[in-house]
Design brief:
Blueprint lengths: L16 H14 L3 E3 L28 H13 L3 E6 L9 H8 L11 E2 L20 E4 L4 E4 L14 H16 L4 E4 L26 H6 L12 H12 L5 E4 L6 H6 L9 E4 L1 H4 L4 H14 L4 E3 L9 H4 L3 H15 L5 E2 L22 H4 L44 H4 L6 H14 L2 H4 L3 E2 L7 E6 L2 E6 L5 E4 L5 E6 L15 E4 L3 E7 L1
Parallel strand pairs: 1-2, 2-6, 6-7, 7-8, 8-9, 9-10
Antiparallel strand pairs: 3-5, 4-5, 11-12, 12-13, 13-17, 14-16, 15-17
Bound molecules: 1-deoxynojirimycin and calcium ion (CA).
The site of calcium ion (CA) has 6 residues, from loops.
């Protein structure tokens, strides 16, 4: 969940831990096991919490450490696990370490960050660019040196070759493990280590004035700033800290290539799980989706966290074509992901089939938008408040306005509008989660891809269960392995009547639909 936008208990328009606690029954009812909370630590908020000023406290906007303890206690009472978001690539520029680094260039905190003299022409030390626009280097006028930031200038990158930084993070991990968290989502896990020689990244396309920051970032091959081999050793070290607590490390890992991604798992010695984020960035591209899902699943099935949307991407229903078409496709892909092993995630509001929220141009809050006029890649659309009901503020806040002001959602797009309706998206996702709980072979039995002579029809058998996904715009026939197969879930709307029916030797998978079958 995106903490700022899930539930606001005190009416100031900003989501908080007390609000989350009061809404945990929704997660329980939906059937989820685990909740990942985005950062709630003290932060000046230049990147809405991903600029952390103190790793071991709670921002007053979200509550207190006591509220966090109450939230964890209540989550456990309901049988939910809690994962928090650790941001080790960069701190806030307001963090005391960076303030000390600025104040004393000869002091011990200087080497917590990457400082370099200007290039011969006085410009930045190399050609690296930030994810949110502009160069990845900012000049400190006082010392005459540049510091590195792969995101905003207010998010200076930590220097992970400094053993003191590693020690600090061991202590931070331990602090939260002692408070009972079950795991950490590791922000920008592929970014921590940098090329020791700071070589220029190869240029793929020339930069043009006014280029969208995401396009500008993609104009380089990130050979030297991201996905460096020494990242893996950092996570092997972390395992020594978290393993005694049985806490889980889940990386936000950027690589789309299955082989590069699997390095972070290191056969169980480094990150327990890595997000496979390519599907979360895709529009409706059936071939690419097919190749990606198959490739990653076949390589390291149990270490992948699957998702098609999060707080950084447009919502899947929007990207996949909008309206009911987009919603149906999103449920179809999610259904298939529920059969791939590993750990599937839903993003708040995805269970309602929500499309992007509508934020007026003058109200945009994401720095991608506010700092790059005209940029189209801003992330506010997925960050608007959770739609609980159709009262003012959609039940998110009792205050006059949410921090990110957006057009209200219709009753049909809210929890209240869907909860009693068996044909709603909410109840479809709820049934899907239940099926995954009931049929454990879906999660951990040996997986075998079936030959389907249709390139857009994917079918995976895991002993007693079979999950099929037809990414084609036309129905497709699937020949079933021998056995008595029954349908237990279909992502197609109006499928209720077919659930539980025994199937013939061939089943027709409707267009852009996934089915889950169980052998009797
Ligand atoms: C990934 C996070 O999900 C995103 O929201 C954030 O802006 C960047 N990392 C930088 O921390
Ligand atoms: Ca609040």
């Amino acid at each position: 969940m995106y903490v700022r936008s899930f539930a606001d208990a005190n009416g100031d328009g900003i989501g908080d831990l007390a609000g989350i606690r009061s809404r945990l029954p929704h997660l329980k009812h939906l059937g989820v096991d685990l909740v990942w909370l985005t950062p709630f630590f003290p932060s000046p908020g230049f990147d809405h919490g991903y600029d952390v000023a103190d790793y071991c406290d709670v921002d007053t906007a979200h509550g207190t450490l006591a509220d966090f303890d109450d939230l964890v206690t209540e989550a456990y009472r309901l049988g939910l696990r809690v994962m928090i978001d650790l941001v080790p690539n960069h701190t806030s520029s307001r963090h005391r370490w960076f303030q000390a680094a600025l104040a004393d260039p000869t002091g011990p905190y200087r080497a917590y960050y990457h400082w370099h003299d200007p290039a011969a022409d006085g410009g930045p030390p190399n050609n690296w660019v930030g994810h949110f626009g502009g160069p990845a280097w900012t000049l400190d006028q006082v010392s005459g040196q540049y510091y590195l930031h792969l995101f905003l200038p207010e998010q200076p990158d930590l220097n992970w070759t400094n053993p003191a930084v590693a020690d600090e993070f061991d202590a931070i991990l331990r602090f939260w493990c002692e408070r009972g968290v079950d795991g950490f989502r590791v922000d920008v896990a592929h970014g921590l280590a940098k090329d020791p020689w700071l070589r220029d990244n190869p240029v793929l396309q020339p930069l043009t004035a006014g280029m969208d920051p995401i396009a500008a970032f993609a104009a380089f091959e990130h050979r030297y700033d991201l996905d460096q081999n020494p990242n893996v050793a950092i996570f092997r070290r972390w395992r020594r800290v978290v393993d005694p607590y049985r806490a889980v490390l889940l990386g936000e890992t950027g690589p789309h290539d299955p082989v590069r991604l699997a390095r972070y798992h290191d056969e169980g010695r480094a990150l327990h799980l890595t997000f496979y984020l390519r599907p979360a960035w895709m529009t409706w591209q059936p071939m690419q989706l097919r190749d990606g899902l198959r490739g990653v699943q076949s390589l390291s099935p149990h270490s992948v966290a699957w998702t098609i949307e999060n707080h950084d991407t447009d919502r899947a229903a929007t990207r996949f074509g909008g309206g009911d078409t987009g919603r149906r496709r999103a449920l179809a892909v999610t259904t298939f992901m529920f059969g791939l092993g590993g750990l599937p995630f839903l993003f708040q509001g995805q269970e309602l089939g929500n499309e992007n929220g509508l934020v007026a141009a003058g109200r945009l809050a994401d720095p991608i938008s506010t700092r790059n006029p005209g940029a189209t890649s801003g992330r506010d659309g997925s960050r608007t408040a959770m739609a609980w009901d159709d009262t003012a503020g959609n039940g998110f806040t009792t205050g006059p306005v949410a921090w990110l002001e957006a057009a209200p959602r219709d009753l049909a797009d809210t929890v209240a509008g869907q909860i009693e309706d068996p044909a709603s998206w909410l109840n479809a996702y709820r049934r899907l989660i239940k099926v995954r709980r009931q049929h454990r072979d879906l999660v951990d039995a040996q997986a075998r891809w079936l030959d389907t002579d249709n390139g857009l029809l994917l079918a995976l058998q895991r002993t007693s269960v079979l999950v099929a996904c037809n990414l084609d715009g036309r129905p497709a026939d699937l020949t079933l392995p021998s056995g008595n197969w029954a349908l237990v879930f279909s992502s197609a709307p109006d499928s209720a009547a077919t659930i539980g029916t025994d199937l013939e030797a061939t089943v027709t998978v409707p267009a852009e639909t996934s089915l889950i079958l169980v052998a009797g």
